[in-house]
Amino acid sequence: xxxxxxxxxxxxxxxxxxxxxxxxxxxxxxxxxxxxxxxxxxxxxxxxxxxxxxxxxxxxxxxxxxxxxxxxxxxxxxxxxxxxxxxxxxxxxxxxxxxxxxxxxxxxxxxxxxxxxxxxxxxxx
Length: 125
Known about the structure:
The chain is 52% helix and 0% strand. It is an all-alpha fold. The relative contact order is 0.09.
C-alpha cells in the first residue's frame, strides 16, 4: 500500500451531503394529503385520524369562534359531524380515511378511559 505507517490519533471528518426535499403548500396538502408517513406501525391509521381531527377542530373554531368544550354533548355532536363530513369529502380523492362509526366509537372509548383514569363516575348519555 501507499499509506504511511499508522502513528495514532487520526482525525475523521463527516461530510453531510445536501438533500433537497419539496413539499406541497398547506392548502393543497389539507385537501390532498397524499401518503401518510407511518412512524410507529403499532399506531397504524392514527395519522389519518389526526388529519381529520385537526381539520374538524379548525373548522369548528372558525364557525364558533371557540374550541369545542370538554364533555359538552352538543359540541361533541357537531365536532363528530364535521369529522364525518371531512372524512366523506376525501372519497373523491382517495376514499374515506376512517369509517365514521369506528371514529365515533374510538372517541367515546377514549373519553370513557380518561374519565376512569381520573376516577370520575360514568356520565349518562
